[in-house]
Amino acid sequence: MPVNIIEIKAKCANAENIRAILLANKANFKGIDHQIDTYFKAPIGRLKLREGNIENTLIHYNRPNQAGPKNSEVTYSRLPPDLYLKEVLATAMGTLTVVDKKRGIYFIENVKFHLDEVKDLGAYVEIEAIDETGTIGIEKLEEQCAYYMELFAIQNSDLIEVSYSDLMMELE
């Protein structure tokens, strides 16, 4: 399913404050998901298989590396857990890196929030304003992302330009 997303990723030193703001704004808490994201050597964009307790998804996306809100072109398929899909993809494409994280997942309307603790990388917050139907529009998604950045007091110096996969490969 193709979707439009305006998103940010930022270092997070105040996860408890953000969690409190989300709950005060009646965010729908989906739970804590232990996710293993395996990134494959895709010729265009990024391809990852997410294996979790809540989310199991094959995701392909193109996104510019920039610190502020960025437009991601995402296509994904939700999947049942499959022991052999990762092996098939790794054999066909090669594995780029693996990201292991614990993710708190929250929603307010069409906006998804992640409070992540990423093994070897630390704590992060992500805001994803999502348009799955093509009816919201990029301008509204940008407004939503900017609103929550301000609400959470995210500073420009905290913004991350790249994917967790890029950060992991810098460590390797």
Beta-strand residue fraction: 35-45%
Strand order of the largest sheet: 1-5-4-3-2-6-7-8
Termini separation comes to 32 Å
Over all CA atoms, what is the radius of gyration?
16 Å
> What's the helical proportion of residues?
10-25%
Unreliable runs: none
Domain module count: 1
SS-based structural class? alpha+beta
The average pLDDT score comes to 94
Shape: globular
In sequence order, what are the helices and strands, one letter per element?
EHEEEEHEEEHH
Could you give the count of β-strands?
8
CATH class: Mainly Beta
Which architecture would the CATH scheme give at its second level? Beta Barrel
CATH superfamily: Hypothetical Protein Pfu-838710-001
Task: Give me the CATH fold name.
Answer: Hypothetical Protein Pfu-838710-001
Q: Report the total helices.
A: 4
Biggest β-sheet description: 8 strands, antiparallel, barrel
Description:
The chain has 172 residues and is α+β, with helices and mostly antiparallel strands. The chain contains four helices and eight strands. The relative contact order is 0.26. The mean pLDDT is 94. The radius of gyration is 16 Å and the shape is globular. The protein starts with a strand and ends with a helix. A hairpin with a 7-residue loop joins β4 (57-62) and β5 (70-78).
In short:
24% of the residues lie in helices and 44% in strands.
Topology:
Layout: E1 2-11, H1 15-24, E2 28-40, E3 46-51, E4 57-62, E5 70-78, H2 85-93, E6 95-108, E7 111-118, E8 122-131, H3 138-151, H4 164-171
Antiparallel strand pairs: 1-5, 1-8, 2-3, 2-6, 3-4, 4-5, 6-7, 7-8
